[in-house]
Each structure stands twice: as C-alpha cells, then as structure tokens.
Amino acid sequence: MSLSIFLEEGDEVILTDPTYLGYSEVIKFYNAKAIYITQDPDTGYQPNLEELKEKITKRTKLIIINSPENPTGRIIKEDIAKAIVEIAKDKKIFVVVDEAYKHIVYEGKNTYISKYGKDVVISVCSFSKEASIPGFRLGYVCANKEIVSVIEKVKQFITLCSNMPAQLILLNYLASEAKDRYLNEYVIPTYKKRRDFMAKMLKQYLPEAKFKIPEGAFYIFADFSPYIKNKNVEELADDILNKVNVVVIPGSYFGKSGSNYFRLTFVSENENRIEEGLKRLAKYFNLI
Ligand SMILES: Cc1ncc(COP(=O)(O)O)c(C=O)c1O
Questions:
Q1: Which atom of ligand 1 is nearest to the CA of 134?
Q2: Closest Cα to residue 19, out of 268, 263, 266, 269?
Q3: CA distance 241 to 238
Q4: 145-192, pLDDT tens digit by residue?
C-alpha cells in the first residue's frame, strides 16, 4: 500500500541487492522499475551510498531499506541510515523502511531510520514476526500525517479493514506483559541458540560455505559457490528438495548477487532437525 500511493508507470524505485523478494514484484505490478544498488558482504551488507547517489534520477520516487534484513540479517548502521535520509531529502524522494524484524535482534538494537527524518521516512511494521502470527495479517505503518491518510484510503478500498478477532487478540497481547516476556524469555534466546547452532553445524558439515552471523531476522544467507560450481541455484534447490527433503531458498530470489547463495532458516526447527537438515545437505554434495 505504501508503494501504491507513489508509483506510476515508468517510475523508479531503488532496492538493495540482495533484499527481500517481495518488493520487486509490487514494483512490477505498478509498471515501475526496480534499480539496484550493491550491498557487499565485506561491508557487512551495508548499502553502497555512492551508487545510491549515482542511480537516483528524475523518475526515482522511493528507496526501500529493510532492517534487519531478510535474507542477510544485517542491521543498517546509524551513519548509513542518516546519510540515506540526507540523500533522500536532498533529492526529494522518500525512504520506505521495512521493519518487519525490528524486534528480532540478537546483539544491540535495530536502527530506526525515521529518527533522521520523520517527514521522508515511511516505516512499515508487522506483527507477523515479533508475535509469531503471520496468519493474522496484521501490521501498521508510521509516516507523516498526509501519507498515512492516503494509505488509509487505499487500505479501505483494498480490504476495508483488518480482521476484528485478530485485532482483539493482539490488543490483549500488547496490553499485557506477555509481549516483552515472550520476546525476551522465549523468542530471542531460542532463535539465538538456533542461530549459533546452525552456524556451528554449517562450519562442521559444509566448511566451505561462507556466511556472516546475522544480527537480526532468522536466516543465514550463505555463499555455496564451492559446492554449487556454477550450477543454477534455483534448479539445485528443487533437486535438493526432491532428493534429500530439505528446503533451501535460492539466493537468486533476493537479487543477482545471490546467484551462488542459499538462504537457510533457523526459525522453526529445533537443534536436532537443524543438524539433520545440514547433514542431508552435506550428503547431497557428497561431503559425508
Ligand atoms: C522483510 C519482510 N517484509 C515483509 C514480510 C511480510 O510480512 P507480513 O507477514 O507482515 O506480510 C516478510 C515476510 O517474510 C519479510 O521477510
């Protein structure tokens, strides 16, 4: 909905490569064009600001930043966030920040880009991850009043409203102490343990896969180049599923830079299952 209020045919939106796969499809839906800027693993997947400045044209309407990011787990650095907002103000474009994983952070805190310019930042938030309720379809947007009032109209024409039982359940949850307890006592410690375990097992069973420990979200985005050997990752992911019953998401779905990567997730499986999955992957690549 945030994109729908800006985009017309021929408009441009700056995306990072890699990033969440949902944005480019919405951009295509409005006959607009995604323009990519690189995020190098060596910079901890921070967006390249020089490229950002170069790629903004008269048709650029938005830049989309996801922090913590799916698939890389990267949290945008404060100085980079500030610089992005300054560039946006200077070029008169808006920054859409997807904060779906803002509470799923293992070290430190998420960076809230809106603090550098509330008028030009649209924060898109979700209860799916923080309360583990993706099926409820509830989220919210924080932006300046004018933008919120237009999004409100779009929302009315698309779904009229969000479903009431889900809203009431969530209201009770938010009004109690359950939210903090759930996040601090269950979600973060559990996911963090699984993240560290998955990293350890990856090193043990697939030692040549290269990856960064994610700061947030619940994925490991790993470079499998030595095992993939220039094969097509999408075909390979299908073959892995068919032969060893393990789901890996092809990195190419998240951008060109992911064409030798797989995205693995540690959100929903316990340690035994994580080890079993990685063992099967190692078997698939004839390592054990
Ligand atoms: C970065 C990111 N944004 C948005 C979504 C979708 O969230 P929601 O369930 O609120 O539609 C996802 C889901 O995986 C995601 O990873």
A1: 9
A2: 263
A3: 5
A4: 999 999 999 999 999 999 999 999 999 999 999 999 999 999 999 999
SS3 164: helix
C-alpha distance from residue 130 to each of 42, 133, 194 (Å): 29, 8, 17
20 CA: nearest ligand 1 atom: 1
pLDDT at 137: 95
Question: What's the CA-to-centroid distance between 122 and ligand 1, angstroms?
Answer: 16
- pLDDT exceeds cutoff 90 at 7: yes
pLDDT in tens, 232-275: 999 999 999 999 999 999 999 999 999 999 999 999 999 999 99
Taking the C-alpha atoms of residue 17 and residue 93, their distance in angstroms, rounded to an integer, is: 19
**Cα distances (angstroms) measured from residue 128 to each of 52, 95, 99, 166, 248:** 30, 22, 11, 12, 21
SS3 261: strand
* Centroid of chain to Cα 220: 12
What three-state secondary structure class fits 117? coil
Per the CB < 8 A criterion, the answer to whether 231 and 237 are in contact is: no
Residue pair 123/93 in contact (Cβ under 8 Å)? The answer is no
**pLDDT per position as a tens digit, 97-117:** 999 999 999 999 999 999 999
Instruction: Check if the beta carbon of residue 37 is closer than 8 Å to that of residue 17.
Output: yes
Q: Which residues line ligand 1 (CB under 6 A)?
A: 20, 22, 66, 70, 98, 100, 126, 128, 134, 139
Assess contact for 16 and 65: CB atoms under 8 A: yes
pLDDT digits 0-9 by tens, 199-242: 999 999 999 999 999 999 999 999 999 999 989 999 999 999 99
